Amino acid sequence: AQKITQTQPGMFVQEKEAVTLDCTYDTSDPSYGLFWYKQPSSGEMIFLIYQGSYDQQNATEGRYSLNFQKARKSANLVISASQLGDSAMYFCAMREHNTNAGKSTFGDGTTLTVKP
Amino acid sequence: KAGVTQTPRYLIKTRGQQVTLSCSPISGHRSVSWYQQTPGQGLQFLFEYFSETQRNKGNFPGRFSGRQFSNSRSEMNVSTLELGDSALYLCASSLGPTGVALQETQYFGPGTRLLVL
Questions:
Q1: What are the DSSP E strand ranges found in B1-117?
Q2: CA distance B2 to chain A (A)
Q3: Do A24 and A72 form a contact (C-beta atoms < 8 A)?
Q4: Given A31, A43, A91, which is nearest B111 (Cβ)?
């Protein structure tokens, strides 16, 4: 069964520093996608970055990068040069391509607080 | 391009009532998924529709149902509301099964906050 584990309920980071949010996953489907979403207090889930299971290179999107280690089944999000607006809940999610149509499985989330 | 819209944004109901939530996907998106988010259970998958057909369903009782229209708009209905149904209900849209994984990225709406008294 697909499963996402985020072991850090809360994280603090100083403004302008980098921070890594951990995510491990489990699946038996060889084809899957990994996603990170940001959820501010307003509630909307904002898509940040995607990594495919067959992608050879780690994904990057502006200040976001994904440290993908397939053998370890980990997909950590790295946020560089943190900003106060980065304070939010962050969710790691996975979608299997051959099973579970249309379903993303989410981790419990990590609350990130950026300190000035 | 407009994002995913959900109506209403906030709703207060009493136990035993029923409720219908609406979701309009991003233009061109044909897949709509629904999720329930609560502090205790996190994000739980309800169901997914593609081309007016339910392709997948989560582990929720039959009181939770949905449908999708020919224009890809979707509704979900909860009958006989219980206190535990209080949650943020999120709708997400994607292009659907294109065979290109990144194109199946789900984009979420702002959610409907349901409070059952």
A1: 5-7, 10-13, 19-24, 31-38, 42-50, 53-57, 64-68, 74-78, 87-94, 107-108, 112-116
A2: 14
A3: yes
A4: A43
Structure letter (DSSP) for residue B16: T
β-strand pairing of A32-39 with A88-96: antiparallel
Pairing of β A74-79 and β A19-21:
antiparallel
Of A42, A95, A32, A98, give the one whose Cα is nearest residue B94. Answer: A95
Tokens of B91: 């709708």
> How many of the other CB atoms lie within 10 Å of CB of A95?
26
B20-65 tens-digit pLDDT? 999 999 999 999 999 999 998 999 999 999 999 999 999 999 999 9
Q: Residues A39-98: pLDDT tens digits? A: 999 888 999 999 999 998 999 999 999 999 999 999 999 999 999 999 999 999 999 887
Task: Give dist(CA B68, CA B91) in Å, integer.
Answer: 12
B33 Cα to chain A: minimum distance (Å) = 6
How far apart are the two ends of chain A, measured CA to CA in Å? 41
Q: CA of B101: how far to CAs of A33, A77, B46, B96, in Å?
A: 7, 19, 21, 10
Return the residue in A31, A45, A99 with the most chain B beta carbons within 10 A, the one to mutate for interface testing. Answer: A45
CA A79 to chain B, closest CA, distance in angstroms equals: 20
